[in-house]
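Bench notes, afternoon.
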Amino acid sequence: MADFIEGKRPVIEALRTEIPCKRVLLADNVKRDPLIEDVLRKAKKRNVPVETVPRARLEKLSERGSHQGVMAETKPFNYVNVTTIVETANAQAAENGGSALVVILDHITDAGNLGAIARSAESVGAAGIVIPNKRAAHVTAATYKSSAGAISHINVTQVANLSQTIERLKKEGFWVCAASEHAQEVAWKSNLKGKIALVMGSEGEGVSSLVLENCDFAVKLPQMGKVSSLNVAQASTVFMYEWLRQQQ
């Protein structure tokens, strides 16, 4: 299913930040105001085709009714297979004294959180991100925005079974670490050196019991305040940078 960006300013921002766009759809009766002219100018610069269509077509495609006479259709994201991530990780480990990181997301549902996690994963040099192909966020325009474009520079794979992927990573020499607030060990007192697969749970439920059973160990973050936990994207960033710190 195509992913559409609706509205003048969101389309301008998508074109400005180089979100991969297949085409721009322009209502046949839209007023050529300065924002529309900016859309046309940026689309031309990016070599994105502009199609003039009946406004009724935009009404049909619109999910929020906020298209303002212009929408952009994004290109499908180029997912890789698990083998590509494994090979990337092994190559990194060979160059970096045996260290590599793969991030596994257990049914995270917010595309913005996916993007924020991808931004941190790319920053620490992770080999890739593993997400389920059902009941989980996939890469959308919101992901590009929240990742500040980093999603274009990191491998992402969709898999049918996380537990099977975890078993494969174990056979490749990874230690699989789950982030859980119920863990006994604090992250920076645990050994996160070497090839680590970090499992982050969903926004509401955390790491599922089935996935948790397949992990080698679990770690948590210490908390001094009254709020029960960090947002999953924030927590992911802390864990990933602790992994990086230990490698150095």
